[in-house]
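Appendix B, Record 12. Input sequence as logged:
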Amino acid sequence: MGNICARLKAKPAPPHSSAVKKRSSSRRERKLDDAAIREQAIAAAILFKQHQQQQNFDRSTSLRYPNGVSKKNSSSSNTLPRSSSSRARSLTDPLLQPHQLLNQDVKVDDLETNHIVLVHGGGFGAWCWYKSIALLEESGYKVAAIDLTGSGVSSFDTNSITSLSQYVKPLTDFLEKLPEGQKVILVGHDFGGACISYAMEMFPLKISKAVFIAAAMLSSGQSTLDIISQQAGSDDLMQQAQIFIYANGNDRPPTSFDLDKSLLKDLLFNQSPSKDVALASVSMRSVPFAPVLEKLSLSDLKYGSVRRFYIQTLEDNATPISLQENMINASPPEKVFRLKGADHSPFFSKPQALHKLLVEISKIL
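Logged structural output:
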C-alpha cells in the first residue's frame, strides 16, 4: 500500500491500436491524483460503516466477533473477502490474506481472555483500527473498537463535551455491561491512554491487562495537558498543528481543537501509506479540550492492580520517544515493547508488527 505511487506511475499510451491490453494496463497504472485518493478514502470509510451495520453495531461501539466455523472444517469461511479489483495485491497488504501472516498458532481458549477492546486517540475513531480488527479476528480474538463521545460515528457535538467522564462514557458503558467474571484487554492509543486509565480506576476487576500505544500514561494528579506541556516549544510540531475552537466565545476557554490538515502527515502519519493518510484526513474530528485539562485520580488499589504494558513508536513526531520515556520512567509498566519504523499511528504504518505485539501481550501469564 505504501508504494502505490510507484506502482501507479504513468506510462505513455502505445501507438498501435491493437495493443488494447497495454493501453488498459497503462490507464490502471497511471498515478492517482489527490482527488482520486480522497475518493477512495471516502469509499473505504463508507464500506467500514456499512460493515458495522451488517454486524449489528450500535452507534457508540463497533463490536465484532470472529467466525465460529473451525478452519479445519472450512478454510474459506474464515478468510476475508477478496477485492473485486483486477489488480494483483502485494503481500505487503495486511488485509490480503491475514491467515498467512502472523500468530496463527494462537490458542485463544487457553488465554485468560481473548477479548480485546481498542480505544482510539484524540480526533480518531473506531475506524482507525480496521487493519488491527481484521488481523485479530482472523487469529480468533473477540474485538470491540469503541467510538468515544463526539468521535467516529458518534453524533454528539465535540464542543459540548465538558468532562473526561462524558467523553469516555461509551467505554465505561461497555465495561459496565460486561457479564460478571468476564475480563478484557484494554488497548489505548494517544489520548486513549488517559481514557483507559480512567476506566481502569472504575473497573479494575474487568480488565486483565492494559496496553498503552504511544499513549498518555499518566500518574495520579496529572492531566494529559501536563504531559503535552513537557514537550512544548516553538519548534514543536503538535503545537504548530493545533487550531483551537472557541464555541463559547473568544473570551472563554477553548472548547476543542483541530489539527491542521496540511501538517497531519508529518505529525501523525510520517511512515503511513498515503491511502490511510487520505482516509484519516476525511474522518478525523475535533478533540474536546475539557478532558485534556482534567487531572486523573488514580489509586494503587484499583488502577495500580491492573497489569500495564507500553508499546513505543520510534518514529513518532506527535509523542516523541523522549516523552514516551518520561512517562514510562515516571510510572513504570510491567514491560515495554519498541516498534521500529512506526510513526504515531502504528495501526497504519506497522499493522502486522503491532498485531504480533498485541498477541504476545495477550499470552503473557
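The CA atoms of residues 313 and 339 lie 5 Å apart.
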